[in-house]
Amino acid sequence: ARQAGSKDKLVGCAAYLQADLPPRCLAKRQIDFLRQDILVDAYKHRAKSVVMLAARRLGEELKKGHSQPIAWNNCHMYLVKAAMAHCHLYCVESFFDGVNTSETSQPALDALMTLCQFYAIFGISQNKGDLLQDGYMNGEQLNMLERQLIDLLAVIRPIAVTLVDAFDVPDKMLSSVLGRYDGNVYENLYEWAKSSPLNKKEVPDAYKYIGPFLRE
Amino acid sequence: INPDIAEERENAKFDPIELTYVIDGGKEKTERRRFLESEALNDPVFDDPADIAFLTDEQRHTNSVRKSLHMVRRLQEMEITNHMESHWFRVAVHRSEEIALSLHASMFQHTVMHQMTEEQQAYWLRATKDYTLLGTYAQTELGHGTFLRGLETTATYDPTTQEFEIHSPTLTSMKWWPGNLGKTATHAIVAAQLYTKGSRMGVHMFMVPLRSLETHLPHPGVELGDIGPKLGYNNIDNGFLRFNHYRIPIENMCMRHSKVMPDGTYVPPPHKKISYGSMLPIRSGIVGNTGWYLSKGSTIATRYSVVRRQSELIPGTKEAKILDYQSQQLKIFPNLATAFAFIFTGREMMKHYFESLAEMDEGNYSSLPELHATSAGLKAFTSSVMASGLEELRTSCGGHGYSKASGFPELYGTAAPASTYEGENTVMFLQTARYLMKV
Fold first, then answer.
1. Bigger pLDDT: B274 vs B353
2. Most confident stretch, A4-8, B82-86, B163-167
3. B337 CA to chain A: closest CA distance, Å?
4. What is the pLDDT of residue B283?
């Protein structure tokens, strides 16, 4: 934040702090929220605004005469939020970059892009307050965004099992009766329960307490 | 195959292996991973005596060490030195449990490779790679965690004998938490405040022998023990360590970046944060791992949600698959998408790390602050999202998610420590914020 206000050019993952971003979200239709530029710009705007807000709050605390450590401590709420927004942006950009550079069949690529869009849209929906606060997005745009979120659920639903199968985790490594590849859950839950050490005896050791209690 | 899950696969629009190749980074890598996993999963020596849910913690520790040592031998026999291949094999050996002896192959070995001189490495690196000793990384103390400058353990140089005296001056200075420290490790990289010529020079790393290689008994002046049962990691003897004026030779200080000369003169490092370097690969690696933990949780929840049926979505029809309910989709799909997001982010983070490491090996430390800030923040962000995501996925399985049969208790117990180890998350966010304020 300090360097961003100077003439020094920022490089690396904080370069967005100096970037010229649209002052308002450019989405006009629901489908616009599938566009990578619109989604990433929203994350950049959010990160930049909360980082700069934290910097301003820190400056205000210093102007009040607080020492740097006390001023820092008084701004933890803003600082933690700034770091989270910065990291969230990094994840969204990495996901898009990963999908854009992946080589696979078109249906698989489409599935991956859908998940990526869904991840980005869901994150905006979860943090919409940051984007409403300074008017970057308005209520109508958020309604469109959340309708797009719901529409994507229906796209993901039929391929959900295929998507998790792609993680390719063998049953022995997954170690879950519920998550078995063959889906034979209930019969194996029963078998698993029977193998519990408590089931080795019909009458448990605790009967030494149960018996006298019941006979009293 | 359960017909409800078979139906889902019959209607698939693509072959899942296509995405598996993308996730692994190519068909050849997938095939190699599968080969290594099959070597581990089909080796009867790696079978557990019973489902781990039914074993005591002591049985789990013994079983885990047994498997780990066989794993070391198999890795040597197969001549696997590639980090990723080794990781795949280790994960397959330990299945849902934390990998035993993982600190030996990661932070312990990393410190030897990157913080010791070539002369020091001539001995210690061979011993580390040959496993003629078992190492761990002892930094955290009972009363001190992420704030390294607050560590109390001392290493006081004595020029008359050319030795360091390692000491735990207070109760809170005991080393507390390191994996396999309690009962398994024979050596540790110990983080201690260096004192020489009466001055404190800050935290430095020391190679400290803890147990006899003949009897496995702790050396005189070294007190060791297990810290007891935990939320997870119950196959691992996370330990405590207390020193009582224990002496090690001058050669055991990691001297690649800063040095103590025989007369006690101190030579400082080129960059003040260079000694924190061992944290960076671990934090960077955690990012991708959070994606893998979420992928497991998503796999369990999604498959179960097409087998489980509950209530009538349309009155008078068969009970619906619970994945057909929008509320269930809203619990699972964000976590499924996040799993992919974190896998890709982890890949990007590791790329960033290796690029910066190459620069630092050439003497260029300019990327260190950004790498430090990015790895700290992303470790915190991904691990906190993952932990809450796993809880949401567990509850998406209803009551059965509470059973250890679901895999969620072990998965959560193994994954959740990432929020507090290698730097508590809020402290990590504040480190990233400090960098963001500066730039």
1. B353
2. B163-167
3. 5
4. 79
- Write out the two tokens for B349: 């983070």
For residue B277, what pLDDT is reported?
Answer: 58
Quote the ipTM score. 0.92
Q: Which of A77, A91, A104, A184 to mutate to test the interface with B (most CBs of B within 10 A)?
A: A91
Provide mean pLDDT across the span A83-109.
97
CA distance B260 to B191: 15
pLDDT score of B32 more than 60: yes
> Residues B57-116: pLDDT tens digits?
999 999 999 999 999 999 999 999 898 999 999 999 999 999 999 999 989 998 999 899
Minimal Cβ distance to B296: which of A3, A112, A174: A174
- Within 8 A of A118 by CB-CB distance, chain B residues are 333-334, 337
Tokens linked to B216: 């496995």
Residue in B293, B298, B299, B304 to test binding to A, most A beta-carbons within 10 Å: B299
Q: Are strands B222-226 and B175-176 parallel, antiparallel or unpaired?
A: unpaired
For the question of residue B422 being annotated catalytic, the response is yes
Q: How large is the greatest C-alpha to C-alpha distance in chain A, in angstroms?
A: 88
The CA distance from A68 to the nearest CA of chain B, in Å, is: 12
| Residue B52 pLDDT exceeds 80 | yes
The CA distances from residue B109 to B103, B106, B319, in Å, are: 8, 6, 55
User: What is the C-alpha to C-alpha distance for residues A196 and A177, in angstroms, rounded to an integer?
Assistant: 14
pLDDT at B276 over 70: no
Determine, for residues A115 and B436 on separate chains, whether the beta-carbon distance falls below 8 Å: no
Percent pLDDT > 70 in chain B is 98
